[in-house]
């Protein structure tokens, strides 16, 4: 069975069910380089044509550019047929307008700046301003965005309770926290206030150990996981793993490249590709509800939708598991050897 056979979204009323594949709109905010209007139009249209009905954005993405672009492109589709998630925690305030935002990764003018604010007033203001940029009366999901990078204590003491109240008031259907820090997400899950976490790059084909405690907490508390950055910033994005492949937005260590190539070999033996495995892997865990992939062009959308529908043999996953188990044993042996050497000094 392919991951595409999982339940589809139910965007209207009733329980919030996420589709296996969601559209990440950071690239619509000119992530790293400018995205043309033609690329944005084509990407959203291709997503809709491929059956993708969940779209994720944030004020942070291009200082509001992603929300504005996404909202304009979704305006032609029936609102009850799709889900939108956005994020809170960074308010957008008037900026100098004399340069660009490339220091934060976005090729847009710096006509606004970000200001951390997880207070209840800040969360509600961020939500209202996002609705205005999106041109919508409501969004379905609100995530507290990267609380570990801002005022973490305020996020937990004020932001999460505010989100829970907004859900109770019917302003949103689900609330959560988005982060690459699995410990922060585990702490958020244990508050009992949230429905979802968006986990970046910590539960992938290549990397799972950092998320082990989080996965258990999510199962115990009935919290769903939205997995993002499942290609580990490029290392798993191509079947042929290049010597200069990136991991965590830097040159991948030789050990990581070797492991990625071993996984690519498994994929090839079973008639699939490394990206096929990478896209579908997170959904094998019962806590993972959806994988959201950042997509800039129609070609990328069609390629990722196809990957989600590939039939991956059970034997391929068994081989992946054996490889992971062997890697863990090797890591444990190295750690034990290092401890022994240190003790002998």
Automatic annotation (TrEMBL):
For this record, the Gene Ontology CC terms, alphabetical, are: cytosol
* Gene Ontology MF terms in the entry: oxidoreductase activity
Query: What name does this protein carry?
Result: Aldo/keto reductase
Where's the NADP-dependent oxidoreductase domain? Answer: 20-321
Which residue ranges run through the membrane?
none
Region Disordered, as annotated, extends over 320-345
Tell me which Gene3D superfamilies the record gives.
NADP-dependent oxidoreductase domain (3.20.20.100)
Q: Which Pfam families match?
A: Aldo_ket_red
Q: Which domain of life is it from?
A: Bacteria
């Amino acid at each position: 069975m392919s991951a595409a056979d999982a339940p589809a979204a139910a965007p209207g009323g009733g329980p919030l069910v996420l589709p296996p594949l969601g559209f990440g709109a950071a690239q619509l905010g000119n992530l790293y380089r400018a995205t043309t209007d033609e690329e944005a139009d084509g990407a959203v249209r291709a997503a809709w044509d491929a059956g993708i009905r969940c779209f994720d954005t944030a004020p942070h993405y291009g200082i509001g550019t992603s929300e504005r672009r996404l909202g304009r492109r979704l305006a032609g589709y029936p609102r009850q047929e799709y889900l939108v998630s956005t994020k809170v925690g960074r308010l957008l305030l008037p900026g100098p307008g004399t340069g660009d935002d490339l220091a934060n990764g976005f090729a847009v003018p710096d006509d606004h700046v970000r200001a951390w604010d997880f207070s209840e007033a800040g969360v509600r203001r961020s939500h209202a301003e996002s609705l205005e940029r999106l041109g919508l009366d409501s969004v379905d999901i609100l995530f507290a965005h990267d609380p570990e990078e801002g005022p973490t204590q305020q996020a937990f003491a004020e932001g999460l309770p505010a989100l829970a109240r907004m859900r109770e008031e019917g302003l949103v259907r689900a609330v959560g926290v988005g982060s690459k820090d699995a410990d922060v997400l585990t702490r958020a899950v244990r508050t009992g206030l949230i429905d979802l976490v968006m986990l970046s790059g910590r539960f992938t084909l290549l990397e799972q150990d950092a998320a082990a405690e989080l996965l258990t907490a999510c199962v115990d508390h009935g919290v769903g996981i939205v997995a993002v950055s499942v290609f580990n910033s490029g290392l798993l994005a191509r079947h042929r793993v290049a010597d200069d492949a990136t991991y965590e937005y830097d040159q991948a260590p030789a050990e990581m490249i070797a492991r990625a190539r071993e996984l690519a070999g498994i994929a090839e033996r079973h008639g699939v590709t490394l990206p096929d495995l990478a896209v579908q892997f997170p959904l094998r865990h019962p806590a993972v509800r959806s994988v959201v992939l950042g997509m800039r062009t129609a070609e990328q959308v069609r390629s990722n939708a196809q990957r989600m529908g590939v039939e991956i043999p059970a034997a391929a996953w068994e081989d992946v598991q054996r490889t992971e188990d062997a890697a863990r044993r090797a890591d444990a042996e190295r750690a034990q050897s290092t401890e022994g050497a240190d003790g002998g000094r």
